[in-house]
Amino acid sequence: EAMDADNHEAYDKAIQSQVAILRRGLEHNPLSELLLSEFGLLNLFLGNDEIAYDYLHEYLKIAPEGEKRDLIAKRVQEITEQLDNEKTLHEAFDEMQLGNEEQALRLIEGFIVNNPKSWSGWFIKGWAHRRLGSYDAAQKAFLTCLELGERNADIYNELSICSLELGNRDLAKEYLAIALDLDTDNVKLLGNLAFLSLQDEQFNEAHELLERAKLVDPADPAVKHLQQELARRTGTETEEDIIDG
After folding, report:
1. Which candidate, 210, 171, 167, places its Cα nearest to that of 189?
2. Which H or E run includes 134?
3. What are the CB-based long-range contacts (under 8 Å, 24+) for 15-23?
4. If phi over 0 gives left and psi between -120 and 50 gives alpha, with beta otherwise, what is residue 149?
């Protein structure tokens, strides 16, 4: 009734009460098949997969044969596979953070086999390939992220890097512009696009981008360097030049 009335506060209180009652019951009777299954299923409903697994696994140890046990055993198997997949994804990400791209790639290939529609897996695959210098394979992986419906600044930034390395400078700038539309105050993206504009002698565009970046982070060293380079290329003075003078 609380959900029908869109009364989220009442619904939350009801759930909290149910959790508290089941938890107290398990404190008094930790081997209750009913309480173990109900508490496990409730946590599954709430998205607490690891907690759900623990209690449902305990239920399966003592539950008698029957339809209920079979259904819960199936759910436990599904949870196990999901948790294993999440663990693999996190391990692949950690390997990337450690600079172990080839190991990350091995892990993520296995993940993608089981989760072909997970954009996160394809992103890590593209990231690993890009860091290994396989820009065509990386680009294909990042485009798959887009095909799966995900649009974020990191994907477009990576696509920009791939396009630049593959010789498509204009497309690289287009991808960066899209990334900036999605994350307007990202200093790294502003600096990257300003750098390309500066190389292309589009000095007004570079100036505008660097001014935007400076408003976000006045102390960013890359932005300061690019401003100095812009000043050198255009024969103008930066604020630092004026202060130093």
Report:
1. 210
2. none
3. 15/42, 15/46, 18/42
4. left
d(CA 46, CA 79): 13
Which 8-state DSSP code applies to residue 238?
-
What average pLDDT score do residues 212-233 get?
94
Give the ranges where 98-168 is alpha helix by DSSP (H).
101-114, 119-131, 135-147, 153-165
d(CA 9, CA 124): 39
Q: Which amino acid is at 25?
A: G
68-88 pLDDT tens trace:
999 999 999 899 888 999 999
Round the CA-based radius of gyration of the chain to a whole number and report it: 26
pLDDT score at 217: 95
Contact (Cβ atoms closer than 8 angstroms) between residue 171 and residue 184: no
Q: What tokens appear for 119 in the block?
A: 């954009």
Which pLDDT belongs to residue 245?
37
Specify the DSSP element, H or E, that contains 51.
Answer: helix 49-62
Tokens representing residue 225 in the block: 């360097």
Structural tokens at position 237: 């003075």
In contact, 123 and 134? CB cutoff 8 Å: no
pLDDT of residue 5: 47
The CA distance from 112 to 119, in Å, is: 9
Cβ 217 vs Cβ 223: under 8 Å? yes
pLDDT in tens, 132-190: 999 999 999 999 999 999 999 999 999 999 999 999 999 999 999 999 999 999 999 99
Main-chain dihedrals φ then ψ at residue 186, nearest 5 degrees? -80, 110
